[in-house]
Amino acid sequence: MTRKMLAVVLGATRGQGGSVVNALLKTGQYSIRGVTHDANTPEARRLQERGVEVVAADLDDPSSLDAAFASAHVIFAVTTMYDGDVEREVAQGKKVADSAAAVDMLQHFIWSTLPSASAISDGKIPVPHMDGKAQVDEYILNALPALAQKTTFYWGGFYAENVTYPPYAPNCLSSAGNYVWVQPVASDTLVPMVGDHNVNTGIFIRAILEKAHLCLPRGYVLGVADWVVHGDMLEAWATILSEKNGETMDVVYVHSDVETVGQIWPGTGRELGQMLKLSEKLGRDAWTKKDTTALTMQDLGLEVGDRDGKLGKGFEYVQMLR
Ligand SMILES: NC(=O)c1ccc[n+]([C@@H]2O[C@H](COP(=O)([O-])OP(=O)(O)OC[C@H]3O[C@@H](n4cnc5c(N)ncnc54)[C@H](OP(=O)(O)O)[C@@H]3O)[C@@H](O)[C@H]2O)c1
């Protein structure tokens, strides 16, 4: 009997990591070790019941990462934004990379990252959480050349689920009886969407592993299932919720600016605003890197369709509100 490869998945209890666990379990080719803060939570126990080895580790603690990565053939790594504490996220990304570099049998390291907004916009539109992740890319490429040979950089597109997050969700304007979406960009801004990241991330990562010959060494993959016109997202939201609630919901797209959005929702609102501004200014070029051609879903042989093994459409999560 062929021995299964060991895939270690960070963030296994939640969005990106959880979807990678689901997609790799379906292949039957991997033993999976899921990493979380606490191996005794209900989420961790649910993973164990599905045959996942769950280990506790902290991205701030290198020795716990070393133990979690022991004997891995594949590592999927994702970090969290920590309310804008970019230095912490960058430090975590570097620690993760250092620990991965020390694993002898490692064949494929997949780093969930984002393009450098500062580099693409010549410093005009910095987006700290994007720039921070991209700093880790450069660390891998320059300081860890042996790991770089085994690395694929995954740019996960905008989550459809974002439309449910408080700084981004439409708000009821009770005096007018309608919903307003206060946004820092024009409604025709094109947004790169992964769709339902709880499913689609895993589909992309599984394809990266299946098409490793295209993605290694040092390949970039654009995790985008759909380029969506920003205003259409609001229309879709309204149509779906109108049907669900049995009454028409009127919506108004309010084209504001980053400053105002940042005043209403300090922190995440401003950060998201800058990210959208990058897309407004640069369109599809916003998600690029100089001298690099990122592989697309088509390059990986993926298509949009119903859920079984294919990518759901950009709005799939919103449609789940039905
Ligand atoms: N929103 C978007 O449109 C978008 C698009 C592309 C990329 N992203 C990026 O996606 C990332 C978040 O991914 P996600 O949505 O999958 O995250 P998530 O749903 O918030 O889950 C975070 C996961 O990371 C684990 N984690 C957090 N801090 C940890 C630590 N110190 N040590 C060990 N594990 C830790 C958590 O484990 P526990 O269960 O133990 O807490 C959880 O499993 C962010 O960096 C964000 O910038 C977002």
Automatic annotation (TrEMBL):
Gene3D superfamilies: NAD(P)-binding Rossmann-like Domain, UDP-galactose 4-epimerase, domain 1. Belongs to the NmrA-type oxidoreductase family. The keyword NADP applies. One of its GO terms (cellular component) is nucleus. Signal peptide: none annotated. Keywords: NADP. Residues 7-280 form the NmrA-like domain. The keyword NADP applies. This is NAD(P)-binding protein. InterPro entries: NAD(P)-bd_dom_sf, NmrA-like, NmrA-like_oxidored. Pfam families: NmrA.
